[in-house]
Predict the 3D structure of the following.
Amino acid sequence: MQIKPQSGVKYECYMGYTDNMGTRVRRGRLYIFEKDSFHGFYLMYTASGKGYSVAVDKDKFTSHFIPVNPII
């Protein structure tokens, strides 16, 4: 089952990795969903506004991120 990220929700990285562009995604950093890429990736930017956007493989999103402030 694939879970899609929601706009306006902060996600915390709980397992670090390096994305396909070489950007290091560190454990504990907060990210916000930016847009759904048609190439099989989600684009996310840092919640602090500093740093680079990261690309997350759609199939591995739940393996790396958990919602911090889910919308109910």
Summary: The longest helix spans residues 61-64. The helical segments are 61-64. The two ends are 20 Å apart (CA to CA).
